[in-house]
Hints:
The protein is built from seven helices and twelve strands. By secondary structure, it is α/β, with parallel strands linked by helices. The strands form three sheets. Strands 6-3-1-7-8-12-11 form a seven-stranded mixed sheet, with helices on both faces. A three-stranded mixed sheet has the order 2-4-5.
Amino acid sequence: MIKKILLLAMIALLGWGGFACGKPTPTPEAALSLQGKNILMIIAHQDFRDEEYKEPRQVFDAKGATVSVASSSLEVAKGMLGAEVKPDLLLKDVAVSDYDVIVFVGGSGAQEYWNDPVAHAIAQEAVAQGKVLAAICIAPATLAKSGVLNGKNATVFSSEAEALKAGGANYTGASVERDGLIITADGPQAATKFAEEIATALEE
């Protein structure tokens, strides 16, 4: 009787082991849905918001995208919470045609781009070329001031709601808002959802 129980137990273990080994795994193609896509993340040289860079970057990297970072200086950029990022290129050297999506990262330092003509030109060119254009936290104010949010649904960190309205946007107050190829988010708590919305737009 004991031998029979042991035999049944062994068969059960082998059966479950075989089942586990036979579980389907995602194909590389499915996992790397953004392979071949080029994403540019624009960060402030000082005081970008760490999560708004790190969390989307993790999503983009995991899906196989090629990510580049631009800033106003090639010196190591510093995040509000201590992150350090070495930019790949200067903002003035960005060629929008090289990328599938342009992402403006927020944080208090993002104010440096609010009235920057180079940042405005990048946003305008992204729209003109049919690229995905995204911004989070206070960075949507840069888009508003560039004129690309006129008539668009958009969100932003609440302190800059009036800046969006002044730029002709329909401020929705949502955590993440998408209107066509323009995606905006209101702050670090929405960083991952923001990235996933960008990924969805690129996958379409």
